Amino acid sequence: MVSASQSTNPLGAQVILDGGVPRTFTAKAREVISGGVLVNTSGATGDVGSQVSSYKTSDIQVVGAQDAKLFNGIALNNAGSNELVTVATKGAYLMRCGGIVSGGALVGHNASGNVLNILNAGSVPTTTVPNTIVGRAITTAASGTNNFALVQINA
Hints:
The protein has about 160 residues and is an all-beta fold. It has one domain. It is about 0% helix and about 35% strand. The protein contains no helices and 11 strands. The protein has a 6-stranded antiparallel sheet, with no helix packed on it. A 5-stranded mixed barrel has the order 2-4-3-5-6. β8 and β9 form a beta hairpin. It is elongated and about 45 Å long.
């Protein structure tokens, strides 16, 4: 179950811009998911086959993104475990800041549903996987429970 501290916005997903065509997919929630929670796909290998005719919505399963290296989108609705949830992969959303967010900067998430600037700390070994880029900040904000930024996600 995703805790209240994981919701990027306590009011749920607050879309500001969706590019004119919502970019979403429907998935099966593997746990309770609240609208506005950042999610990543999760499941067994072989979830899909080679034919479109064998594909079903429940082939894609999602959980709350609790690893900063994993991100597939933002949940648009509340869903109980094993219920369907719509996930947006593009659009501009109001997101809680878990670190400094600078307008124009690439942002990631902190594994608690909050966004922050992605910083390059210098030389990164080739064996190190950097945190996943969630999108790009449109507005600037400081870190804090009640500080939000407008972020264009691009999963």
